Amino acid sequence: MRNDNLSAPQAIYRKDYVAPGFWVDTVEMGLDLGLEQTHVATRMTLRRNPESTEKDIVLFGDGLKILQLRLNGANLKKSQYSIQGETMRIPDAPDDVVLEIETLIQPVKNTALSGLYASAGNLITQCEAEGFRRITWFPDRPDVMAKYTVLLRADKKAFPVLLSNGNLIEEGDLGDGRHYAKWEDPFFKPSYLFAIVAGKLVCQEETFRLQDGRDALLQVWVEPGNLDKTDHAMQSLKKSIRWDEERFGLELDLDRFMIVATGDFNMGAMENKGLNIFNTKYVLANPSIATDTDYAGIESVVGHEYFHNWTGNRVTCRDWFQLSLKEGLTVFRDQEFSADLVGTATGRAVKRIEDVRVLRQVQFSEDAGPMAHPVRPDSFVEINNFYTVTIYEKGSEVVRMYYTLLGHDGFRKGMDLYFARHDGQAVECDDFRAAMADAGGRDLTQFERWYSQAGTPRVHASAVYNAEEKTYVLTLAQSCPATPGQAEKLPFHIPVTVGLLGADGRDLPLHTDGAQAGQTSVVLELTEASQTFIFRDVAEEPVPSLLRNFSAPVVLHFDYSDAQLAHLLAHDSDPFNRWEAGQRLATRRLVKLTQAVQAGEALALDEMFLEALRNTLNDTTLDPAFRELVLTLPSELVIAEEFDEVDPQAIHTARQFARAAISDALRGDLLTAYEDNLTPGKYSPDAESSAKRSLKNLALSYLADWPQQSTFDLALTQFNEAENMTDRLAALHALVNFKGDAKQKKAADKALAQFYKLFSKEALVVDKWFMLQAVAETTDVAKVRELMQHPAFTLNNPNRARSLTFSFCNANPSQFHAPDGSGYALWAELVIALNKINPQVAARLARSMDRWKKYSPALQQKMKAALEKVAGTKKLSKDVAEVVTKALAAE
Hints:
Elements lengths: L11 E2 L8 E11 L5 E11 L8 E4 L4 E7 L2 E2 L6 E3 L2 E4 L5 E10 L9 E5 L2 E5 L18 E11 L5 E4 L2 E9 L2 E7 L4 E2 L5 E4 L2 E8 L5 E8 L8 H18 L7 E7 L6 E2 L4 E5 L12 H16 L8 E2 L5 H20 L2 H23 L11 E2 L8 H34 L3 E2 L1 H12 L8 H4 L5 E9 L4 E9 L14 E8 L20 E5 L3 E6 L7 E4 L8 E3 L4 H10 L3 H25 L7 H12 L5 H8 L4 H5 L7 H18 L1 H10 L10 H17 L5 H13 L3 H12 L5 H18 L3 H12 L6 H8 L9 H14 L1 H4 L5 H16 L1 H8 L10 H15 L6 H11 L3
Parallel strand pairs: 2-12, 19-20, 20-22, 23-25, 26-32
Antiparallel strand pairs: 1-24, 2-3, 3-9, 4-8, 5-6, 5-9, 7-8, 10-11, 11-17, 12-15, 12-16, 13-17, 14-15, 18-19, 21-22, 26-27, 27-30, 28-29, 28-31
Helix pairs in contact: 1-2, 2-3, 3-4, 3-5, 4-5, 5-6, 8-9, 9-11, 9-13, 11-15, 14-15, 15-17, 16-17, 18-19, 19-21, 23-24, 23-25, 24-26, 25-26
């Protein structure tokens, strides 16, 4: 039901796109920098776009004080232009224009962290998506591309380092303690890629030889005191540059490439041309403060932002509806980069499984909620709300389907054609699809539906084996649930990779249309509502391995028996489906356990499942990281998706019982796995060592569910003796969640306090300390409120806000969904408070209530009240208003 007291914010529609009335050729900017106020002088040359129906010069600005506005040298009177909201219109302009604008901004008051803002005494920009309009009036849209020259002036003591996009062409002193730096970007770019950084920074730098023989200067800039934490980021950057040269033939096009780390940042990182700005979380690392996951995250994000240099910068988006054109494609590229660096087939599979887990847990839920939208949305109210897992992760899956359909070489041809056609342009998702189709000689017209239709398709598979004819007939049928604004869905073009396993566990050779001789996997293309595929010369009834490597972002339904799933778990040559079989076995049992909890029945876990886990755990021919993934139970959020009405407490009780049962049954095996996967010696984040630690620490977490003094001592010893953050944090997690007596609880609290004291000066580690407590089984709303009073906690810093409040609301479902509604009341307070500080961050927290209609009527009532409280807030930002409006309108 819609809340009549909250009017829906005005939407922007893709169908209403109009090309800009004027193009901008050059932009010259002079900034006199200061924390309290910065003076911005902009001079731009414009020319009329003869193909546009827009006749006025249209500029955008937000919170700017105009000091002067001149057109072709003449001051504009207020009667010669109009301002409505964030839009300025200048009518009756000649075809060629020189526009000069002077504005005044106040960076220190910019808590939204969009535009030019202050961070730890430094000045930083974030202009994607619409932050440039908070710096100066400008046609701030991605299809307006220009060449920029930027002159920065500042007090030399306060801002000794002055950085911007492109190449440094001049620098010097101005007298009176001030200095300047002049930067020139030789490439056309949209305003969202503009960047400056000024402040007290130090850098690690290296000269890197590119494949064409040029030398490029690489720099990683950080605040003083963090220089010892930059080496991994630098190595990741060099690997990224080399990988893009070798895999896609794409070279660094500038003489220098810079990374800057800041502790105040709304996102993970930003790909500004030649001057990437990063959240410190994705730059700073050494063994004492960073986990294996942190090291992998840095490598991935550094790669992602560097790869944007071509997929996003050289070829950019025509409009923000095409956001996945750059983000989905670049996520695919960074996923492939990370997988290639591991180098082994199993290592690639582990990366694939990790990516799919995120997709299923977060994106599938988004597809089923009120904020569901296509990969290429048709409308939005606030573009910041559409930096979503659908745009990024599902967008990546769409790109991966091209790769599956066209093959490695065909996909590379498509990429080459895409750049040949569109380098230096702002284009649409359809342009990428056309390049892939033309390069591969394929008709991909139907494939467009992946861009225009929201929702997660369902593929229902059934099969019949005919022993006399030795045929295996596989029928695939597809459907897609209704989503907001899209009741009916047309069939998608779905690649379904299939293999067949014999009784001995080996792949059977496939004899079907499209399969080559001796082939054991084939890509079936499902394009109709229902299709039948016939496999011939099948000597025995097989077990089908369907949707290998998760070849499409769909939900697959096939009536596997437990015995068939156990067979796949033990033998499937496709590692993804081997893991998938284990997850299906686990999910079935967790659903039944949840139902038993609700019915008040006795709980039990069957021996067949436990034995399957034991066999996997003890199979040393398998990569330890793969075994860790198989032994990790589906999360409470994933289990919740199996129910029409979610009971968070019952799900939590069921999952905790399953963990305890596994711990009890596999105790000896877990101890052996723990001991066999120790990594003595100097810490290294390499794939082999990380894999061993992942399995060892999973074993420790299971053993912590066996409340014996010996396992507590094992965790405490690891905590005290750990020489790296991965092992130390895993041990602390085990101690905090240990189900022991008062004495053990006291020892765990002491370890928690010791950890904070040891790392209180390391902001990223303090974030971990808050997060660990936020997701602890015993952390309730009262504990969160207590932690919010800690001197180290603040809502002003996005990382710190996320570490505690986001973690509790999104990753501790049994406590957040407390029956008394206290979690929802806390959520409402936090969203309202953050809305005043940083609307982007507030809107992301607001998404925690997207699926409120999935819960029991009693919980729904309390959730709706919390949503309405936020909706009734005065001066609610567009960011938050869009989220709560759509949530309350959910059917």
